[in-house]
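note to self: the first set is below, dont mix up w the second
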Amino acid sequence: MDALPYDAALLSTKAHELIDCISWLAARGWTPATSSNFSQRLDDRHAAITVSGRDKGHLAASDIMVVDFDGQPVATELRPSAETLLHAQLYARFPEIGCVLHTHSPVQTIASRLYAHEGRVHIEGYELLKAFHGNSTHETAIDIPVFANTQDMTVLARQVDGLLDRQTLWGYLIDGHGLYAWGRDVAEARRHLEAFEFLLHCELELRKLRT
């Protein structure tokens, strides 16, 4: 049998780290049905990612597979999410990114629909903006991009790349779909995801109060 092109022991460790995080997210209702996908960097060529079609609230280590940075399965017959390319492009482009989390909470999905026509959600003045790596003050603003939904991941990946050429991001929304968030490791990616969820929830509540 040929040797695996990645560290199998490391995959096992990363798989269990991911599953712990995903279970926490699923308990909050942010990964309904078989939606969402999650990944962690393994090395400079490979990432561990959830297998397509699995209930994310009941994952086992065997539900985590390996892909390369072109989004292709490695040494497995398992099928990754159709959105794998959106994970892979971040790992290929940014060596510091160690984890990508994609969820479908009601807050994220509603915000993506309401702000799709603007192409962004503008967030300013919140103390929790300091949760994002690199921010040290609430006296700042971020724009969370909202991309049109498409089944063609190569198109969406190109659009994301174009925006990454122009600004630093820790996440984005897809219209009618959900949120992608990432960080240098699982803990930071989850912190960013929580911060986006809180800030989007605040914006939706303020929008209701203003009507």
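second set (the one i keep forgetting abt)
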Amino acid sequence: MEILRISAFSDGDTGGNPAGVVIEAQLPDADEMQKIAHDVGFSETAFATPYEGGYRVRYFSPESEVPFCGHATIALGAALARKEGNGVFQLKLNEAEISVEGSSNGDLIMASLQSPPTKSEPAEPALVDEALALFGYSYDDLDMRMPPAIAQAGATHLILTLQERHRLAAMDYDLDAGRALMKKAGLVTISLIYVETNQLFHARNAFASGGVLEDPATGAAAAALAGYLRDLGWSHEGEIDVIQGEDMGAKSILKAEFSQEPGSAIKVSGFARLM
């Protein structure tokens, strides 16, 4: 079995979020995929097999299966472009059908995905209280132009927006406590955001639910953020850029493009590089 290692949403030929990619004629059983993902050790590994003219895809973190992973989808798009040539590939996930486009240019590959539908709602105050306590923040740290929210685009995220960039840089928390909170609340990540401009955001994503302290790039969370901004009526001109991983030394760049239609798919794009 060949396991590709591809860094998605890279900053040119550096940074990005590593993902494992396995493309096989038949998917292994769930226990075997879980073991492989654990052994690979990246925040997610995508497993794909040909299916009805496209691919059936499942995603596993080192500790659990997740319904959708943006950076692993970008990595899969890069792998498929290398395998089949440039094109658009239809993907059937556990709970949605999406697509990914891959376009190769030497060692760097540009890929873009169309996310599952989006939705958002205000976060319950009790959950916000627990999350703030987890990170050592207070309500005074929050930028209430973007109130705390639960946002979805194939996976569920809590979004907390901070007023000051240095508070984002100082993010820290206990992994076990974070895992317990995310499991209880049904969260895949907690997404911490700083707004530089209406179209440029800095993000850090705690991923304790998958056994990973932090993701350097989270395409699903970028899609969920874009959907939330649309729901808010934020002035975004149809696209945003998200810089993530910078405080980890793995700068990643994600672009999200979207229409005004509520709930519609978000196009999330970035570079990918072979590791």
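remember for set 2: The mean pLDDT is 95.
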